[in-house]
Amino acid sequence: PEQIGSAIVHGDYRIGNMIIRDGRMAALLDWELCTLGDPLADLGYLLNNWIEPGDRGAEGNPTGVGGFPGRDHVLAVYEERTGRDLSRINYYRAFSHWRLGAIAQGVYKRYLVGAMGRNRDFDLEKYKLGIHQRAESALRFLTN
Known about the structure:
Blueprint: E1 7-9, E2 18-21, E3 24-28, E4 35-37, H1 40-49, H2 71-82, H3 89-112, H4 124-143
Antiparallel strand pairs: 1-4, 2-3
Helix pairs in contact: 1-3, 3-4
């Protein structure tokens, strides 16, 4: 879709990088991936990391244990406060999966050529499967 504007994009915008106080974000940490870009890229990434109870991967994820609003509520509040059209948000969710898959592919290749050292606990086949799952998720968001 056409870019809605340019803003500082965090690049790793998720609850694990937030300090929450009294139910509100007090600080956002981990800025080394920031750049200028479409702010909906951060929203797509946030939604992909906003796991709801019952979702795959819910255990161990802060939003997966309950007590947090759902993704639909996050979208509604964002749309209300920014006035932005979110009808193409699935594009940004697909982009987020593609981006992480591309990064993971680079890490995978470095493991294959021995540039990552030796880590006997690292399951290379499971990591490879995760890359394929990212690609499949990206395609699913683009076709829905």
